[in-house]
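Notebook p. 47: complex prediction with S-adenosyl-L-homocysteine.
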Amino acid sequence: MPYLHAPEDLAELVGDGPAYRVAQLRSWLYETPVLQAGDMTNLPKDLRERLEPLWPFEVETEQTADGGATKKWLFRAPDGAAFEAVLMGYPRRVTLCISSQAGCALGCTFCATGQFGFERHLQAGEIVAQVAYARAYLRKHGLPGSPTRLTNVVFMGMGEPMANYDRVREAIRRMIEVMGMSARSITVSTVGVVPGIRRLTEEKWPVSLAVSLHAADDELRSRLVPINKRYPIDELVDAARTYFERKGRRVSIEWTMIDGVNDTDDQAFKLAGVAHHLKAHVNLIALNPTPLSTDRASAEPRIESFARLLREQGVNVTVRDTRGKDIDAACGQLRIKSTRGKGIGALSTAG
Ligand code: SAH
Ligand code: SF4
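Predicted complex, structure tokens below:
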């Protein structure tokens, strides 16, 4: 499983061959990835055979939505850990949403991943392999009406990237330094693990930062996002503001619209204050209902008036389209329906 080796350690896999084999292999893995080692045409047959299985996971399910423009994969590692990635094609860009952990320990009430608890951290190679797999898929099959090049990667699948900092960092390094992606095309989304934001601030790469805020006062936020009790809003906003100042990258605020919970005019006014202070862009996204909660999405007119209120306060707002609704393409939902492995057993440990 070559993606579990650092790109600098591939010589171990190549064995006695000529020195240029290592560069050839690195190129097949990271620059022009292919779906099967058998397609690495300039490598000798015995080496290609030794490289199988190429991926550090099986593709347990592949689902398609939005007329083919959205693909969702559920990956299964040999130890049974399950995680997913969603590929979304648009006319001028293709975005891949990846996972940083199997499950998540932070237990946000409205999130399917959080409801099912933590399984394990993903290794750097398992994170990068999701990106390589999507690239290989795009090269081979493409998405209708979209570029064949992967333009953006967002850490908005399963898991909290800042809770798996070192491996996520190494995955980002490989994406930028080995795969040739630009730092700004990679977005790390965090629910507010402040020490992680501070560490990312010290890295040399200007990756994009998204803060999942969901509530603009500590009382409500601590109910929805338990980690808020440890890192309250003021600390989170301060860390995000420093990130913005040091990187010169506009931070985005993610806000899941939950009916009757965080969609009030009062929350909109408070959110406007935070957004101003951060000079942040706000993304509103309708809640995707989850099995272990009775929460529902805000109605469309409520989302529109919430957005209008923010705009009237001078805030930049986007109401995000919900891709892959019919395949539960948001946030750990596929794993719930899959009964193999530990997915359901994790229920008992849900935070
Ligand atoms: N742990 C990180 C990244 C993964 S979650 C974080 O929380 O930011 C990615 C995004 O999906 C977050 O913005 C999260 O708030 C959002 N999300 C989680 N559950 C959701 C749901 N049921 N419906 C809509 N968005 C959801
Ligand atoms: Fe974890 Fe993010 Fe889900 Fe919260 S929203 S439980 S941090 S994955």
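Notes: Residues 124-140 form the longest helix (17 residues). The first strand starts at residue 58 and ends at 65.
Next step: compare against the earlier run before touching the bench.
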